[in-house]
Amino acid sequence: MTPVQAATIPLFLASKDVAVQAVTGSGKTLAFLIPVVEAILRKKFKKHQAGALILSPTRELAQQTHAVAAALCRHCQLKEPLLLVGGSSASSSLASTRPVTADLQAFQETGHDILIGTPGRVEDILTKYSVIDTSELEYLILDEADVLLNLGFAITLQSILKRLPKMRRTGLFSATTSSTNASLKEWTGRAGLRNPVWIDVAVTTNVAETRTAQATPTSLTNYFLVCPLDEKLSRLAAFLQDHSTEKVIVFCLTCACVDFYGNALKVLLPTVSIEPLHGKMVQKRREKSMERFRSDAEGGTLLCTDVAARGLDVSNVNWVVQFDAPQDPAFYVHRVGRSARAGKSGNSLLFLTRKEEAYVDLLKMRKVPLSPLPSSERCCPFIYENVEEGNDKGATKRKTDKSNEEEPTKRTIRCNDGSEIEDIFPKVKELVLSDRDFLEKGTKAFTSYIRAYKEHHCSFIFR
């Protein structure tokens, strides 16, 4: 039993409302599922009554929670939980993509004690249909509560709460650091928590005989790499080639960037398995991408947005690479939490330009330990790189052929050991010039990147 489970389960079973904060991968899912299943076993519900409702901010997280809950219910000989998520397709028979009518029919035929879903689909069913009886609901769980309460779900949640009994147990679960905990405290009353017990499971390290709190698991090693903007993609490609046999998750800033970089890297790195994932993909494609990434025994790379930053549990993720820093610095902790889960070791890498290097100090102030990428990594920049002072991008000097001024300049991308890595920028340019689809995707990626970069919460650094 993990510390968060040991602290939460007895209180939840004793009919206490709880607000739980713990680092990613610490076992929060079982911390609320075990009391929920115990409550269902104690009290017999009628066929059309629901005993527990678990809300998740994304479909992927809801599906993951459903899989864990289903296994637990089978072991306890309970009915399988009902999964209620959007992204429906009338021709699909999958529980995760079927229409509302199929969900209602499944509930009427079988009856389900536990409901797991996203706010939009749950509200749709509770407000428009009178099939599910929530009058005897025992537990309401808000998983990744800070996202549910801050990303436009406020009105939807209020609509759901009006249809639930006030005499219930409510649990808020989050991995958000304590520095951003104020928003959760504001919502405890509105979410129906009465005198909640606050559980904060902190991670501490012993350095020089002093105990220091940190926001990430101790088994996770965080690195950063500083390089010119126009070298980032080449260094990422070199990194993915060197780690092609490991599971790697790469975070980009926008959905359009995922589409463009994903297509380009598939062409330029044919030996590396790359799967895209973002919120604008149709649900079936999102599921297929996650399924292929999970089942790839020889490694693989998941190129994604922050849709995969919260709660997703993929076993044996070796590296989390943040090609673009998140708009909200709080999401750094959630992104890197995809690795080093359940006590396993893992690594993370953050790409920054020289103008963004102050972000490292900001993260350290937020109790995130970082260190430079080891020189043993081939993508690590050359220490004594000569930088042109007048170049806004901070690019390395380029070799020019004075005998032919019209010939394109050749850029040297040097490694820390003095060797060079391939500059893939010209190849990307060729793809854009020769394929209209690449051109359109590249245009959308550039536009969306500029807009997202402009909206960074840390605008004093990212400007």
UniProtKB/TrEMBL annotation:
<keyword id="KW-0067">ATP-binding</keyword>
<keyword id="KW-0378">Hydrolase</keyword>
<dbReference type="GO" id="GO:0003724">
    <property type="term" value="F:RNA helicase activity"/>
</dbReference>
<dbReference type="InterPro" id="IPR027417">
    <property type="entry name" value="P-loop_NTPase"/>
</dbReference>
<keyword id="KW-0347">Helicase</keyword>
<comment type="function">
    <text>RNA helicase.</text>
</comment>
<protein>
    <recommendedName>
        <fullName>ATP-dependent RNA helicase</fullName>
        <ecNumber>3.6.4.13</ecNumber>
    </recommendedName>
</protein>
<dbReference type="Pfam" id="PF00271">
    <property type="entry name" value="Helicase_C"/>
</dbReference>
<dbReference type="InterPro" id="IPR014001">
    <property type="entry name" value="Helicase_ATP-bd"/>
</dbReference>
<dbReference type="InterPro" id="IPR011545">
    <property type="entry name" value="DEAD/DEAH_box_helicase_dom"/>
</dbReference>
<feature type="domain" description="Helicase ATP-binding">
    <location>
        <begin position="9"/>
        <end position="195"/>
    </location>
</feature>
<dbReference type="Pfam" id="PF00270">
    <property type="entry name" value="DEAD"/>
</dbReference>
<dbReference type="Pfam" id="PF13959">
    <property type="entry name" value="CTE_SPB4"/>
</dbReference>
<keyword id="KW-0547">Nucleotide-binding</keyword>
<dbReference type="GO" id="GO:0003723">
    <property type="term" value="F:RNA binding"/>
</dbReference>
<feature type="compositionally biased region" description="Basic and acidic residues">
    <location>
        <begin position="401"/>
        <end position="410"/>
    </location>
</feature>
<feature type="region of interest" description="Disordered">
    <location>
        <begin position="392"/>
        <end position="411"/>
    </location>
</feature>
<dbReference type="GO" id="GO:0016887">
    <property type="term" value="F:ATP hydrolysis activity"/>
</dbReference>
<feature type="domain" description="Helicase C-terminal">
    <location>
        <begin position="232"/>
        <end position="388"/>
    </location>
</feature>
<dbReference type="InterPro" id="IPR001650">
    <property type="entry name" value="Helicase_C-like"/>
</dbReference>
<keyword id="KW-0694">RNA-binding</keyword>
<dbReference type="InterPro" id="IPR025313">
    <property type="entry name" value="SPB4-like_CTE"/>
</dbReference>
<comment type="similarity">
    <text>Belongs to the DEAD box helicase family.</text>
</comment>
<dbReference type="GO" id="GO:0005524">
    <property type="term" value="F:ATP binding"/>
</dbReference>
